[in-house]
Design goal:
Elements lengths: L3 E8 L3 E9 L3 E10 L3 E3 L2 E3 L2 H21 L3 E9 L4 E4 L20 H8 L2 H8 L8 H6 L10 E4 H10 L3 E3 H5 L13 H6 L9 E3 L4 E4 L2 H7 L5 E3 L5 H8 L6 E6 L3 E7 L6 H5 L3 E4 L5 E7 L3 H12 L6 H9 L21 H11 L8 H27 L5 E5 L6 H11 L3 E3 L4 H14 L5 H11 L3 E3 L5 H15 L11
Parallel strand pairs: 1-6, 6-12, 9-10, 13-17, 17-18
Antiparallel strand pairs: 1-2, 2-3, 4-5, 7-8, 11-12, 13-14, 14-16, 15-16, 18-19
Helix pairs in contact: 9-16, 11-14, 12-14, 14-15, 14-18, 16-17
Amino acid sequence: MVNELFIAVDLGAGSGRVFLCDFGEKFLLEEIHRFQYPPIEENGHLRWDFAKIFSEIKFGLQYAGKRAKELGKKIYSIGVDSWAVDYGLVDKSGTLLANPICYRDSRTNSAMQKVFEIIPKAEIFQKTGIQFLPFNTIFQFFSEDETLQKADKLLLLPDLVNYFLTEKQVAEYTNATTTQFLNAESKTWDFELLERLHLPTEILPEIVETGTDLGFLKTGIARELKLENVRVVAPATHDTGSAIIGAPLEKNRAYISSGTWSLVGIEIDKPLINKQVARFNFTNEGGAFNTIRFLKNVMGLWIFESCRKEWEKNGVKTDYENLLAEVGKIEEFCGFIFPDDTRFLNPVSMLKEIENQLKETGQEIQKNPVFISKIILDSLAFRYASVLEIIGELSGKNIEGVLIVGGGGKNNYLNQMTANACATAVKAGLTEATVTGNALVQAISAGRFSDLDEARKYVSENVELRSFVPIFDDKITDAKRRYSEIEKKFIKDSAAVSG
């Protein structure tokens, strides 16, 4: 294994990266290729340009092979992870019938209520343990048009990529759980659930465990990319699943996978499914190696980045580091929003929706980008704290610290404010946790590490984390009270409703 490297392909909802990874004496994560693919309007829906995505992946894989040769090493395997819930439909000949529809498309706007009229919400949760979000695969599947009649297989995005790389049609477990039609107890597709919705079950592929070796790249691709004898391994194909594998979690520590979305949760041994969990709309996503990610989705830095794009479009320069530096100079709290309001999911104007929510809650309307940025980041921190408090209550666990991973971990202002809001120590620094976890699973599959504990130990010994100590003062206490009042206005029956 000394001379063998791993390629991690990480697809986010709009941009992707290809990394070369080495777990030798020196830990290497080298970015090989970065690319973007914003969703496109096509045939009446918001879709992903899959041909572009796959073309960019191939370019990255080919370049990774060249780079490995420069280092005097060989590629052992490739792993692909992506965001959850979206999928493609292929026919019997293996042709993709249409570009996959983006989860932010409006087709599922009324799907949840229609599904609940057929199957009670509580029954779906009892079976799957998955939180209700309007774009979950079950609601997308339910909203399909006549294209479904031509489909032979439904493949989630990373499984679709793997199919075009290997011709294997399978569904990796961690991402399959996010569909909300996988039975949490049996870890198999819940055919009875889908049949009651009159949805075809024969198009669902075999579920495979995290770390399954899918075989070598198919001959044509291998020759084209000059990557002969390179295997494809299914990592935790859900990007958050990979991120948590890569996170050097300590006992009684919670995690926040911070990016476009923020996933706030803990790692447990088995699903936690009861009426209280359902009431607060928490989720039990499958993790690798017999773990469960008990968590909640928070809207995340999508709100902040959407505002930055609007400011740039309007000619207002908002350099990321300078903006955060200016935010840090403001001592007072400018106001709060409830980040999980569905109005922030895909608005025409994020700035306008923030103004609307501030107005509705009797707060001063802000126009200054620095003040608005502070409102967003402070609100996220207090939302994290609120979610973590509920996690402690539901799980009975005493959370003694928080590990922040992902790209949002570079935001030191948000990291410090999270420590303040949660009144607990925060560590951050593994910004490429998803890539790390993706490659770690490949390395475990290859025998480089014996198990997850050994793999995480390697990461903890080779990655330096930054520490953030909470500040306790009356301003924080008052801000938490003010935020809680705002949050309560958007919560039904004291439970956060995400869709």
